[in-house]
Design a protein that fits this description.
The protein is mostly beta strands. It is built from five helices and 30 strands. It holds the Pfam family Glyco_hydro_68.
Length: 535
């Protein structure tokens, strides 16, 4: 028998196993209370995912949910081992539709654009301001190489008229410029000898009237001429207050001169530079929890506090059930180097009404020996459930684990829960099309055999109604690819309990308009035009 006849049969056997597991899970769902966590059924040849109750705990409790090895291995269990070169090996229902190469530039060739977020209120809804929709983005001058943008990032903003039925191809956005005055974000660092100083992701809240508070990551790099660190880089979670204004011609902002240095990695819950010069600490997202009135919380990306290379992973991080024939021990995976990946999602609570003083709480999720980055975390609430969404890279997984670039999701009954990874216990919510049978390459050098969409989009941001925005990174393979630097088409997720699937009825086969970030209500303020500042 030839391989061409064997491959389809192997694929059919894998598909049949997955279909059977899914059907069994559906039967369990039909027989279970609506509020209960549904136990995913293991795929033959792979371990069962860890059992998670979704039970809520008090935000101050010392309980951290775990995205375990047993959970994350479900992604490979869903992947088709016979998918040929340049085909997607992952389930279509969890895969972002392929983005075309002929994309428009939302900035009209002014700046590179990547991580972006909306103007929000305390419930993460997205108001328009005096008839304008507003989005905040990391930007860098296009004279820089695309991969040099991270160390020169500034926080910029765009605006467009709300409630417009037909938009230009690029989304109809106007670039408003930098948000912060030059030098403002660098002033917080005691050591002013930095080689580079930059502004990284966060979130923006609007309050009564036209007051804005921006929560972001200020970063100082201390590098030698050869690119090595003369001391670890210094990321800090910072807040700055300003004002937003608008008239019939557009939007502008003032203030943001004062910068409040709120949180630095403590080395107790969250790894710091003394423990690991490559640590992650960034991306604040603030919100109010209806279960705890009067409290404001923040989630952010961190790493489990431990010296780099210390063997800290435990059997609980593995997450295998007793007697599972596909188990791994913590020592086995650490012998392969998995203990260098120690991602977590942090939690903090505000101590004052101005939201300038915060207290660390224990992390709400860890991914020890699973992944090293849980970027741009968000809390999303729907139908009484709390969803923790975060993003991660294929290249940051630990040895023995694989998964695509994209969104990962976890569902529970509170902001601190025994979070259950969505979609068959894997955590994969929305991946870029990828083939786990072939190497990834890098965005600047994608593998020839990879699906052309593997690096197509990143830094996804989940919006009301399940809409998701991301930026274009690289589309294509090594023989023919283009770099991005603008926002991708919006897509939509259907979020239902522990199931999160792509809505293919949205837009054109699942791809909406380019950079479509709609407001879902009008901020309660007079629509009268503000007077333009005199120069």
């Amino acid at each position: 028998m030839t391989t061409t006849t064997r491959a389809p049969r192997r694929r059919l056997r894998r598909a049949a196993a997955i279909i059977a597991a899914t059907a069994a899970a559906a039967t369990l769902l039909a027989a279970s209370p609506a509020s209960a966590a549904v136990e995913p059924v293991p795929v033959p040849g792979f371990p069962a995912p860890t059992a998670h109750s979704q039970q809520a705990y008090d935000p101050t409790d010392d309980f951290t949910a775990k995205w375990t090895r047993a959970d994350a291995r479900q992604i490979a269990a869903m992947s088709d081992p016979t998918a040929p070169s340049r085909e997607n090996s992952l389930p279509e229902e969890y895969t972002m539709p392929t983005v075309p190469k002929d994309f428009p530039d939302m900035s009209n060739d002014q700046v590179w654009v990547w991580d972006s977020w909306t103007l929000t209120d305390g419930t993460s809804n997205q108001p328009s301001f005096k008839g304008w929709e507003v989005v905040f983005s990391l930007v860098a001058d296009r004279s820089l190489g695309f991969d040099d943008r991270h160390t020169y990032a500034r926080l910029g903003y765009f605006y467009r008229k709300a409630n417009v039925a037909e938009r230009p191809a690029n989304g109809g956005w106007t670039y408003g410029g930098h948000v912060f005055p030059d030098g403002a974000s660098g002033a917080i660092f005691e050591d002013q000898s930095f080689s580079h100083q930059t502004e990284w992701s966060g979130s923006t809240r609007i309050f009564d009237g036209n007051k804005l508070r921006i929560f972001y990551t200020a970063v100082a790099f201390y590098r030698n001429e050869d690119g090595s660190n003369r001391k670890p880089y210094d990321p800090r979670i910072v807040q700055s207050e300003g004002r937003i204004f608008a008239d019939e011609n557009g939007v502008w902002m003032t203030g943001f001169r004062d910068q409040h240095d709120m949180l630095q990695a403590d080395g107790t819950y969250y790894q710091n530079g003394a423990q690991n010069e490559f640590f992650n600490f960034r991306d604040p997202f603030t919100f109010e929890d209806p279960a705890h009135p009067g409290k404001t919380y923040m989630v952010f990306e961190g790493n489990t506090a431990a010296p780099r290379g210390e063997r800290v992973c435990t059997a609980a991080d593995m997450g295998y059930r007793a007697g599972d024939p596909y188990t791994e021990t913590a020592d086995e995976v650490m012998d392969r180097g998995a203990h260098y990946q120690l991602a977590n999602v942090g939690l903090a609570v505000a101590d004052n009404a101005a939201l300038t003083e915060w207290t660390f709480l224990p992390p709400i999720l860890s991914a020890n020996c699973v992944n090293d980055q849980t970027e741009r975390p968000q809390i999303y609430m729907k139908d009484g459930k709390y969803y923790l969404f975060t993003i991660s890279h294929r290249g940051t997984y630990a040895a023995g684990i694989d998964g695509p670039e994209g969104v990962y999701g976890f569902v529970g009954d509170g902001i601190r829960s025994d979070f259950q990874p969505v979609n068959r216990g894997s955590g994969l919510a929305l991946g870029s099309p990828s083939n786990l049978n072939f190497a990834a390459g890098k965005p600047f050098a994608p593998d020839y055999n990879q699906h052309p969409g593997q690096f197509q989009a990143y830094s996804h941001y989940v919006m009301p109604g399940g809409l998701v925005q991301s930026f274009i990174d690289t589309i294509g393979t090594s023989d023919d690819f283009v770099r991005g630097g603008t926002l991708a088409p919006t897509v939509k997720l259907d979020i239902d309990g522990s199931d999160v699937t792509v809505d293919r009825s949205y837009g054109h086969d699942g791809l909406g308009q380019w950079a479509d970030i709609p407001s879902n209500y009008s901020h309660p303020i007079s629509s009268a035009s503000d007077p333009r500042p005199t120069r």
